[in-house]
Write a structure and sequence with these properties.
Length: 62
């Protein structure tokens, strides 16, 4: 998800997306630990997406 798309969302929607992405990251880490995750790059992409969402949420709240 691009930063421009995130900025068009409302603060509540961004928070919901953060929760969803955090849950997905937890599941991906669990799959990675058990050896079931084939695409490990997805874990890093999700981590960066959460960071991007949190950064833009702080910008919106100011």
């Amino acid at each position: 998800m691009k930063a421009k798309e995130i900025r068009e969302m409302g603060a509540d929607e961004i928070r919901r997306k953060i929760d969803d992405s955090t849950q997905e990251m937890f599941n991906l880490r669990f799959q990675h630990a058990t050896g079931q995750l084939e695409n490990t790059a997805r874990l890093n992409k999700t981590k960066k997406e959460v960071a991007r969402l949190k950064t833009i949420l702080k910008e919106v709240e100011q």
